[in-house]
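Hello again, I could really use a second opinion on something today. Take your time with it, there's no hurry, and the full record follows here:

___
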Amino acid sequence: MADVMEMKVSSKKPANFYVRSAAAFLKGIEAKAASDGKEAVEAKPPVDVLKISGLGEAIDTAVTAATKAQADGLATIEKIETGYPEMTSGRGCGHIVITLKRK
């Protein structure tokens, strides 16, 4: 089975943060030794499938991260799902899930 990772985006951080995060998930991360007061980072393999989801105002951020990953040649957009789930406050809110497959 393919390695699937879900990334939930919010409008609290800029879109570029999620663009870089998506790229890291799709490329994998190399191990780095501890230096200059920073902790060591262990190597992480790339994921085969990345699901990016956004709710409400974060939909634009999710779309930006997914389209940038595709434009950079890291992945292809396989599926786009939208919905309007009911919230606990009683008022609905738009929702998007974009499925990317690593090239």
Residues 70 and 76 are 5 Å apart (CA to CA). The first helix runs from residue 15 to 27. The chain has a mean pLDDT of 92. Strands lie at 4-9, 49-55, 75-83, 95-102.
